[in-house]
Structure formats: C-alpha cells, structure tokens
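2024-03-11 09:14:02 INFO worker-7 job=invfold-0412 stage=load source=structure_tokens
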C-alpha cells in the first residue's frame, strides 16, 4: 500500500553494516544518561540512581567519515563516545536474561551535547532536548552483527581528538550493563526493531571546535571518525 502523503515522506535513516553492502534501518535513538561512575563524578551527580533516558531523532545520525557542522546556540559542544546497541526484535517487559536475543549488533557512536544548554536546562528543571537533540548530534559508525562480535562485556572504549586521547574507558565500567538497560528501557516503551541505544559515556568529555577530528573506538568494532565543520549560519 503506498500512502497518499500530502508532503514528501522523509528518507529512511540507516547505518551501514560492516563488511556488507547492506544497511540497518534506524527507527528511534534512545540514550542512557550517567552510566559510568567517573563521568557521573565529573558531572557532580548522584551515583546511585537508576538509569534514565532521553532520545534523539533517527535523522540526526552522521555516518563514519562524515562532517558535523558546529551547531547553533552553543559555545560548548562536548563529545561523548558511547557503545551503541542495535535492536533486532523488540517488545515490552524484556527479561534481563533474554535481552541479548533482541540485539542485532553493536557500533561506536558519539552523543554530541550542547553542554552549556544541557546544564542550563537541567538547572531550570527543563527537558534536555535543547542540549542533546539537534541536527547531526548522533554520529554512528558501521554496525557489526552480534553473530560476529558476541555480546561484549568488556573492552576499551576511547575517543581521540586530533590524535590526542580524551576519553579512555572500558565497557566493564558500565553501571547498568546492556541487558539491564534493554530490560529497563522496555518497561518505559515497547522497544522496536530499528531502535538503537546509546549506552552512556565514560569520563573525559570535553569541548570540540570547528576543524577537530574525533576518532572513536570500541574494541572489536568498526572505528568511527568524524570531523567538526564550520558553524551553521
Ligand atoms: Mn551520553
């Protein structure tokens, strides 16, 4: 059935699947806040709270090799390198023990953040969207299927800016691990095929400026490199 849309439908957002010509269609982007102790400490927040979530739109993805125009409104855009989980099959009330069965694969992403605006909205008890949800705010590298990677519980997660290491963590530092996140998030929404989850960032978040090259790696996954471009006029 072809719908009788009154305006053009948006193109389907998608992420490359490593080693193939195929792509993974993205439906929604869920992000976990504060999931590494050292990052919680650098942000001065409570270390014992349950996970919480915010969202970005699928068309905010930037592929490996892409350029992120420096966004409007901010003077303090931070990088947050994160392990990305791509959901294959969804549902409500997914048990922790079954969560891995719902995963298609894994990738490396960056939760780009207008930190000045995020903190201002946090202090005003307003939503985080102005700080987190903006065009080009979700760079994501190619997805490697879980059939090839297994389900990593540990491994280095790093971000270099212009060749200098800025973030250097390990997946074993995740407070809420991937199955726990999938299970918990599936209480808030019915997860759907095409949903991806950015699982939180380790310590070392910092500002980037036009011309910076960000290189992100998680052990065993395809590298993600993006360049920060000139400011949006
Ligand atoms: Mn984040």
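2024-03-11 09:14:09 INFO worker-7 stage=emit residues=233
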């Amino acid at each position: 059935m072809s719908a009788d849309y009154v305006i053009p439908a948006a193109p389907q957002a998608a992420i490359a699947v490593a080693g193939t010509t195929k792509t993974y269609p993205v439906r929604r982007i869920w992000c976990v806040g504060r999931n590494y102790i050292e990052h919680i400490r650098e942000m001065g927040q409570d270390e014992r709270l349950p996970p919480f979530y915010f969202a970005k739109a699928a068309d905010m993805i930037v592929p490996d090799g892409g350029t992120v125009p420096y966004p409007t409104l901010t003077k303090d855009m931070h990088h947050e390198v994160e392990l990305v989980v791509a959901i294959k099959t969804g549902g409500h009330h997914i048990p922790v023990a079954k969560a891995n069965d719902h995963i298609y694969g894994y990738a490396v992403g960056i939760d780009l953040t207008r930190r000045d605006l995020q903190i201002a909205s946090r202090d005003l008890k307003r939503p985080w969207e102005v700080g987190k949800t903006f065009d080009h705010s979700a760079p994501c590298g190619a997805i490697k299927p879980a059939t090839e990677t297994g389900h990593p519980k540990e491994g280095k997660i790093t971000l270099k800016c212009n060749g200098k290491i800025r973030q250097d963590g390990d997946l074993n530092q995740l407070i809420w691990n991937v199955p726990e996140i999938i299970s918990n998030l599936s209480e808030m929404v019915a997860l759907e095929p095409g949903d991806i989850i950015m699982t939180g960032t380790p310590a070392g978040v910092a500002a980037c400026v036009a011309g910076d090259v960000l290189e992100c790696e998680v052990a065993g996954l395809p590298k993600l490199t993006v360049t920060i471009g000139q400011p949006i006029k």
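2024-03-11 09:14:09 INFO worker-7 stage=report msg="Residues 31, 80, 82, 111, 198, 200-201 surround manganese (II) ion (CB under 6 Å)."
2024-03-11 09:14:10 INFO worker-7 job finished
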